[in-house]
Structure formats: structure tokens, C-alpha cells
Amino acid sequence: MSEFTDMEIYARVISAGSMSAAGREMNLSPAVVSKRIRRLEERLGTRLLQRTTRQIAMTESGQGFYERVIAILASVEEAEAYVADAAANAKGTLKVAAPTSFGRLHIAPHLGKFFQSNPDLAVNLDLEDNFVDIVGEGYDLAIRIAELSDSSLVARRLAPVHRILCASPEYLERHGEPQSITELMEQHVCLAAANQDPWRLVGPDGQITLRTQAPIRTNSSEVVRECLLAGVGVALRSTWDIGPELREGKLKVVLPSYRASSKVGLYAVYPSRRFLPAKVRVFIDFLASLYGSSPYWDEGVEDWLRLPEEIKHEA
User: Among 68, 48, 67, which residue's Cα sits nearest to residue 58?
Assistant: First the structure.
């Protein structure tokens, strides 16, 4: 500690045998040590030490107080050592919030590898699609897919998120492929979970906002995904969610000139950069190295992520 408490000074005087010896150990003058002991006695309302010109001796109260003080100081030292060790070493339980589908697909399958490198860590992973109150609900961090605005929280971008319009070949065979946004909205079923409506798209003429219409309303993104695969309609989906289906031809991109804003990303969000616990740092670093600027879920679908103008320019 940068400043000694009165209890620490008292304990040091007893262990050193004199005020002058204790002062030398703590780099304090004997006068300061004597003043602090008197202040402690006045606050307690009793004499702790009998002083003579040559030595000091504890009173009965002083003896009982000393025995309890050294126990308290030992506990404080142990607590400080525990916190310092936890800050320097990844151990304990990490409480994490993440979106339901993303957590199931892209966090849970990799936890085994994470635990191999961090055997002293446990993870409490809560999956839900609403933003949690990180500080109020006691989370160490949250994984969020969003276009984040400035806030009091710290956000680290882990990966880009590409969201594109798509439909199953069976749906397109029955209803035809939309050739414009107007045709999409007027002639097609547009699927979206409640928290994903409206669609905010960026296209050739800039940003547009579209209200979806479908015979099913749901709060579940996974229900929308299953309806999309079942040929119910068109949906705006992230490649982390439908990459395999795109590669296998179970889904096709429609209106490739339109997609969600590139400002939407995958972020790790946590309360503060100051005194960042090691357990939080190693988990964020693990996810960042796992995903990166070209995440594994985009392998094999890169051509779908390029705008038609980019393809024309290359040709």
C-alpha cells in the first residue's frame, strides 16, 4: 500500500520492538509513528502501549487488539494477492452473454479448445437475442452483432458481418426471382424476426429501410432460418448463419446489389479497459484469432459477398 494505516503502524511497532525501529522499516520518522499511535488510541478510547524512555509494552487491551489486527492484516494481504493473481492469470468463472444462434454455432463448438489452453477458467455462457445490461447484470463481457454507437462501454471488433438477401431454389422456382426492391416488397414474402424488422439495406441508391410482411411473425431468428430453408420466403441473413447452405446450393442470393450495412460487425463489449481481468482478455483474444477479418464461415462464399460493380470492374 502507498499509505500505511494506523493499524499497520501499530502492528509494525510491536513486531519491530520500538517506534524508531518501526519508523525505519516504513520510512517514517519516530515522531510521525508516535503521533499515529496516539491518534489510534484516541479513536479507540483506550491506551494500547505503555511507553518508557527505553522500551514499550502492550497493555492488556493492546495485546488483544494486536492479536486481532495481525489476523485482519493477514486477510487483507491474502485478498490483495488473490486479486492480483486473478488479474495476472486467467482463472475463475467468466460470465458471457451472446446472441442465441451465433453462440450455438460459433462459440460453443470452440470452447473445448479454449479450455485446453485455459484449464483454470470456467465459462458461464448465456444465450439471448436481446442486449443485456452488462454492468447491471454482472457480465464480464457480451458478444454483439450490431452497428455500435459511442457508449460508455468498450467495444473490440472481432469480425465483419455480411448480411445478404437470400431464398431457397424451391421458393424462387415457384415465385420467380425478384428483379427490384419494389418487386421484392410487393410480390414476395419477406421473413424477419421481430427484432430484425425493419430491414436496413444499402444499395445502388444508398440506404433504404423496408418493413417486412410475412404470414408468420416470430421473435426467433432460428424460426426465420428454418422457414427460409423450407421455402416460405426471402430473408436477410448473415453468412455466419447460412454459409454452408450457400455453398451447398440450398440457398441462393437474390438482389445482390442490396445488403445490410458494412458498419455492422461482430464485437466483444466490456465495461472498461482499466484493470481488464486476464480471463476477459484471453477470451477476447481467443475469439479474435478464431474469427479475424476473413472469418472461416465466409470461406467458399466470397463471390456472393462482392457487389456486382466490383465484379464488372475486375472483368
Answer: 48
Q: What is the pLDDT of residues 170-209, one digit of tens each?
A: 999 999 999 999 999 999 999 999 888 889 999 888 899 9
pTM reported for the whole predicted model = 0.68
198: preceding bond cis by omega (within 30 degrees): yes
pLDDT, tens digit (0-9, with 9 covering 90-100), for 107-158: 999 999 999 989 989 999 999 888 888 888 889 999 999 887 656 678 899 9
Fold that domain 163-261 belongs to in CATH: D-Maltodextrin-Binding Protein; domain 2 (3.40.190)
Superfamily of domain 92-161+264-298: Periplasmic binding protein-like II (3.40.190.10)
Domain ranges of the chain: 6-88, 92-161+264-298, 163-261
- Does residue 249 surpass a pLDDT of 80? yes
Please report which helix (H) or strand (E) contains residue 77, including its range.
Answer: helix 60-88
